[in-house]
């Protein structure tokens, strides 16, 4: 096995320009996710997939390509082999918008080499990682190594907007026993990732004219001609947010995981709409008339939970909290808040691969042999496509190159880390899939 690994490493060293050139070629093609910014000049995911598909076919992969959304294709390449030793290498090719291009030191899609780095949007997030996966397979083939297990490369779209490309594969295509997602990890091995869902809480009040607000908040004679008081949903929502903050704090105190930062189980109120009347889109119909006592507020939450928590338990805990909150108010007891889970179909299952899993140990061992800085086995603060593979029963890990400008200006990937990551991924493929 080590002879095979050394042979592949020699090949990568000899042809180190392969991963560099491929990364640059991919970065030069703008592939901004059209859910964020619609412009045919920069929404060019099919062209990126053309490059990847051609290279996979050149390396003997059987390829499959289909549109997840119109003109937004996934690409899969497979070398057949044993399912018991099967492995997926995965990366996404959509990128976030550039933002203010004048704040960049160079053209955001230049792919220039400077200071030992490749510069451009998507260089580190994560076209460099995709290139590492393809380059690892290319080196294995060039070295004449024949794998025993099935190897698949998944090049997916839409990770930046929820991972619907990987979700589509997880639901509709053949998977594998294990997977490496080559997101940037700065040389560390990421074995855990918390779950994430978006949830909407709708709080109901009673609409009325603001001129009679006093009738809602101060005692009035209960005469026959008394105007019916309103109930301000915005004020109820304020109380809810205060209670939610305490509930969040209790979750952060009571839930922990050895690989995750302390207090990671946060619940972020990200979007609030308040107004009068329920619109067909599930939001208040009138949000521009302050003379109306609000009867609808929607609060959209970014809800994190721990790698070892079950989504069903998380749901039950939150619904219990909302129920008890509503029980503190006579109006809400009769008109309880409504909870909508998986808002916009966004749901990332947790990933919790054991630190002593063979693939974890393989990546950590090979990274320790290649990198100047030994890897740390850790958890990840955000979410990646690893979630969708883990949710489908695949033992997934995240490992990839180093860089900067992650979702920011002047994005870049470190060239030496591209070569190192290619070596580590190639060695992990051989360790996992075995050779004939």
Give a quick account of the main beta sheet: strands, pairing sense, barrel closure: 6 strands, mixed
Poorly predicted runs are none
| Count of extended strands | 21
**Strand pairing plus helix content: what structural class?**
alpha+beta
CATH topology of the largest domain: the name is Aminopeptidase
Task: Output the number of helix runs.
Answer: 12
Strand content of the residues, in percent?
15-25%
In CATH terms, what is the architecture of the largest domain? 3-Layer(aba) Sandwich
Could you tell me the radius of gyration in angstroms? Answer: 26 Å
Distance between the termini: 10 Å
By CATH reckoning, the class of the largest domain would read Alpha Beta
Give the CATH superfamily of the largest domain.
Zn peptidases
Shape: elongated
Mean pLDDT: 96
Strand order of the largest sheet: 1-2-6-3-7-19
- Percent helix, as a range, is 25-40%
How many individual domains? Answer: 2
Task: Tell me what the structure shows.
The protein has two domains: 2-194 and 350-433, Aminopeptidase (3-Layer(aba) Sandwich), CATH 3.40.630.10; 195-344, Alpha-Beta Plaits. Helices cover 35% and strands 25% of the residues. The strands form five sheets. The protein has a six-stranded mixed β-sheet with strand order 1-2-6-3-7-19, sandwiched between helices. Strands 9, 11, 12, 14, 15 and 16 form a six-stranded antiparallel β-sheet that branches. Strands 4-5-21-20 form a four-stranded antiparallel β-sheet. β1 (62-69) and β2 (72-79) form a beta hairpin. The radius of gyration is 26 Å and the shape is elongated. By secondary structure, it is α+β, with helices and mostly antiparallel strands.
């Amino acid at each position: 096995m080590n002879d095979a690994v050394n042979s592949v490493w020699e090949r990568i060293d000899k042809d180190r320009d392969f991963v560099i050139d491929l990364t640059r070629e991919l970065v030069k093609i703008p592939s901004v996710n059209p859910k964020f910014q619609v412009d045919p000049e920069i929404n060019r995911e099919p062209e990126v997939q053309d490059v990847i598909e051609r290279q996979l076919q050149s390396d003997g992969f059987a390829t499959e390509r289909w549109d997840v959304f119109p003109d937004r294709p996934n690409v899969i390449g497979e070398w057949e082999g044993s399912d018991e030793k099967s492995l997926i290498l995965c990366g996404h090719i959509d990128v976030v918008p550039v933002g203010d291009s004048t704040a960049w030191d160079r053209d955001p899609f230049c792919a220039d080499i400077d200071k030992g780095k490749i510069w451009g949007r998507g260089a580190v997030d994560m076209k460099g990682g995709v290139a590492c996966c393809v380059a690892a397979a290319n080196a294995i083939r060039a070295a004449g190594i024949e794998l025993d297990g099935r190897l698949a490369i998944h090049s997916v779209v839409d990770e930046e907007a929820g991972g619907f490309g990987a979700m589509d594969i997880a639901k509709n295509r053949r998977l594998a026993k294990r997977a490496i997602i080559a997101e940037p990890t700065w040389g560390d091995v990421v074995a855990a990732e918390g779950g994430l869902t978006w949830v909407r809480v709708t709080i109901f009040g009673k609409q009325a004219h603001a001129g009679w607000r006093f009738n809602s908040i101060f005692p009035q004679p209960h005469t026959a001609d008394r105007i019916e008081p309103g109930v301000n949903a915005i004020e109820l929502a304020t109380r809810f947010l205060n209670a939610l903050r305490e509930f969040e704090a209790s979750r952060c105190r009571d839930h922990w995981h050895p690989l995750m930062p302390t207090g990671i189980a946060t619940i972020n109120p990200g979007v609030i709409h308040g107004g009068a009347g329920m619109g067909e889109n599930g939001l208040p119909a009138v949000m521009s008339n302050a003379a109306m006592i609000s009867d609808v507020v929607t609060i959209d939450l970014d809800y994190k939970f721990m790698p070892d928590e079950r989504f069903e338990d998380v749901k039950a805990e939150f619904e219990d909290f909302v129920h008890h909150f509503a029980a503190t108010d006579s109006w809400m007891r009769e008109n309880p808040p409504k909870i909508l889970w998986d808002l916009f179909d966004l749901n990332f299952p947790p990933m919790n691969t054991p630190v002593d899993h063979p693939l974890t140990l393989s990546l950590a061992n090979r990274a320790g042999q290649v990198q100047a800085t030994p890897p740390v086995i850790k958890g990840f603060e955000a979410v990646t496509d690893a979630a969708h593979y883990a949710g489908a029963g695949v033992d997934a890990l995240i490992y990839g190159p180093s860089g900067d400008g992650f979702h920011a200006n002047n994005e870049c990937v470190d060239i030496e880390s591209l070569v190192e990551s290619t070596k580590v991924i190639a060695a992990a493929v051989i360790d996992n899939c075995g050779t004939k």
